[in-house]
Inverse folding.
């Protein structure tokens, strides 16, 4: 794998080149997840966390999923890594279906890094014991090579070898997240799922974890699904991005397309709401009114229509399908972009 | 501009193994009428403790060491104790709005109670005032919402209710401790917009504590950057962001991903912030500082005027004549 380019940011040409046709790597079709949350037996309350989500992730790329709390992004991550069983739909990798119950050999292929390393690492286990257990169970390297492999892993995540003898309590937040990454890497996965991996970290530490993830993706040719609510981070790390709202993907495409030329009014508002170091001119600032409806509510038509400045009659009766080629949007009134339009673009040009 | 709050030499003390350490301070702060002061720093920098110390609301084990505070009264600054200011002149909004609302009271009653306490008006008057206050902070359909319980409201609405409670005390100063951290970005934008509106329309003074540099850029007129319990740089917001002077401020900005940029390396700050029990002698940032020299480990640099309203505590930043 080429090591050109300096991620995060410059998505290396090499990676795009090795990316095969989108359809034959990670493929998600019509994925739905319902959670029963009480109610009566006659009228059970159902929380529809994911509603018919489809996406394709090409090999060697970073696919971002953004959205606000309750949009289903973490549920999607859990389904992809086999921690939550979908109610409907399918996940497949290289044409092989991955069910909710996976054999170890399959489980190993998709690994996850969680948001809070404080709670995703066993506080009573040293790093070495944790890694040894994994390497033995999955029979990844011969027994006599386990120690060497542990040391290699520490090197990969830029940790001193001494960290192998420490428990999570003796490590800082950033170091714990590196150990959590090492644990995922130990299984040599094809796909790494990172669910808000830096949300619990300070800015100065976040930068080092993002740099590390970018380097690993580049050097190991891994594919990553990167989930975040932080648009600035996603823009830097991801090649493609999907914007989710209330369990649905409302817009997806190449990161630069979606961020600079958002077509869905929600993406547009989301981008405008992100605090910036170079504040937007007031004209670009579209404040969203109201809040998202309850996930328990039955919604006819477009789920965004109560907050949408463009909502019309059609929006209250018919749910828009995700349509388009490459840059896809689920909206009856997508925003058209002449060249160079968009909130980000306007600011970039006006910047000293 | 008239000064409405002046705080000098504020220190927070912690008794630890028979000796006293100070996780915060000494810190000097001031606030002008209708101004928003932003305090930024990473976790453990003491920004929240500073805010709590002003109102003497420190958690158990911590106490306010030194420090005197003056507040504007009839054109002059008068020294007042925290308990005289708390809830009357100065209100605090915390990160978790749910924790600030009594779950056993309807939100309208919560607000009306405060109105009665402060104005001595009748029950009926206080209820209609509660509706007005909810309308003022942009709660839709306030006539009905006064009958809601806190748990029936979303995070954004709850935070609006907390802000309306602060207004009900007719506070002149609002201390905000990460008020939008628990909220989504579109709701955060709404709350920031509301705070700005209150600042402009009602002349409310705001102290806004956050770890989010981009957010503070958006809301603050003036900022203080804190590191390990001390202010290392302060000045007009636009100036500090355009020309960061302290090595820590520079490093923070270099580590921050900007929504407008998709390229360029992020530069992490090596090492970890020191713990209050073993703050380094001299400049507390020195062990992580790329510019650190011999003098940096000898004495603690004081904030010095650098021109353009900016003060920096660093031996290595050239003084502007």
């Amino acid at each position: 794998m080429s090591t050109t380019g300096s991620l995060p940011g410059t998505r290396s040409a090499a990676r795009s080149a090795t990316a095969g046709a989108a359809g034959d790597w990670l493929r998600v079709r019509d994925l739905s997840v319902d959670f029963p949350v009480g109610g009566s037996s006659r009228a059970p309350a159902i929380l529809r966390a994911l509603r018919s989500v489809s996406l394709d992730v090409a090999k060697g790329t970073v696919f971002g999923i953004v959205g606000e709390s309750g949009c289903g992004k973490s549920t999607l991550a859990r389904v992809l890594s086999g921690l939550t069983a979908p109610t409907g739909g399918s996940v497949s990798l290289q044409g092989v279906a991955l069910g909710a119950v996976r054999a170890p050999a399959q489980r190993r292929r998709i690994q996850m890094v969680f948001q809070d390393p404080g709670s995703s690492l066993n506080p009573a286990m040293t790093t070495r014991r944790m890694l040894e257990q994994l390497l033995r169970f999955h029979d990844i390297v011969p027994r006599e090579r386990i120690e060497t492999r542990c040391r290699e892993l520490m090197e990969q995540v830029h940790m001193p070898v001494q960290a192998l003898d420490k428990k999570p309590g003796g490590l800082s937040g950033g170091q714990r997240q590196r150990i959590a990454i090492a644990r995922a890497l130990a299984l040599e996965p094809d796909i790494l799922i990172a669910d808000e991996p830096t949300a619990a970290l300070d800015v100065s530490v976040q930068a080092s974890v993002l740099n590390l993830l970018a380097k690993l993706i580049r050097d190991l040719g891994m594919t990553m699904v990167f989930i975040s609510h932080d648009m600035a981070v996603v823009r830097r790390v991801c090649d493609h991005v999907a914007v989710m709202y209330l369990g649905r993907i409302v817009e997806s495409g190449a990161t630069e397309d979606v961020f600079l030329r958002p077509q869905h009014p929600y993406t547009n508002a989301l981008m405008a709401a992100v605090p910036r170091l170079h504040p937007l001119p007031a004209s670009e600032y579209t404040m969203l009114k109201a809040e998202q409806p309850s996930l328990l509510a039955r919604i006819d038509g477009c789920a965004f229509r109560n907050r949408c400045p463009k909502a019309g009659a059609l929006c209250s009766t018919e749910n828009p399908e995700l349509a388009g080629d490459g840059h896809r949007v689920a909206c009856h009134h997508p925003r058209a972009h002449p060249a160079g339009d968009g909130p980000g673009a306007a600011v970039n040009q006006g910047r000293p | 501009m008239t000064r409405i709050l002046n705080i000098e030499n504020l220190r927070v003390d912690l008794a630890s193994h028979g000796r006293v350490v100070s996780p915060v301070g000494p810190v000097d702060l001031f606030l002008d009428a209708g101004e928003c002061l932003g305090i930024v720093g990473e976790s453990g920098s003491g920004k929240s403790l500073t805010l709590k110390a002003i109102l003497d609301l420190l958690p158990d084990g911590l106490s306010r060491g030194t420090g005197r505070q003056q507040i504007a009264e009839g054109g002059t600054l008068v020294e007042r104790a925290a308990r005289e200011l708390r809830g009357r002149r100065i209100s605090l909004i915390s990160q978790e709005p749910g924790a600030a609302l009594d779950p056993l009271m309807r939100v309208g009653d919560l607000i009306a109670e405060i109105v009665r306490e402060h104005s001595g008006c009748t029950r009926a008057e206080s209820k209609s005032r509660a509706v007005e206050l909810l309308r003022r902070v942009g709660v839709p359909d306030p006539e009905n919402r006064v009958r809601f319980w806190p748990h029936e409201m979303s995070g954004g609405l709850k935070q609006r209710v907390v802000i309306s409670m602060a207004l009900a005390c007719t506070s002149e100063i609002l201390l905000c401790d990460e008020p939008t951290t628990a909220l989504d970005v579109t709701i955060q934008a709404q709350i920031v917009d509301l705070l700005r509106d209150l600042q402009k329309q009602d002349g409310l003074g705001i102290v806004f504590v956050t770890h989010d540099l981009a957010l503070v850029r958006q809301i603050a007129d003036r900022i203080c950057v804190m590191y390990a319990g001390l202010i290392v740089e302060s000045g007009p917001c636009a100036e500090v962001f355009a020309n960061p002077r302290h090595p820590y401020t520079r490093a923070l900005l270099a580590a921050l991903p900007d929504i407008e940029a998709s390229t360029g390396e992020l530069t992490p700050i090596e090492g970890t912030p020191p713990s209050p029990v073993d703050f380094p002698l001299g400049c507390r940032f020195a062990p992580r500082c790329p510019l650190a020299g011999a003098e940096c480990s000898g004495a603690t640099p004081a904030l010095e005027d650098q021109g353009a309203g900016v003060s920096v505590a660093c031996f290595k930043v050239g003084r502007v004549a």
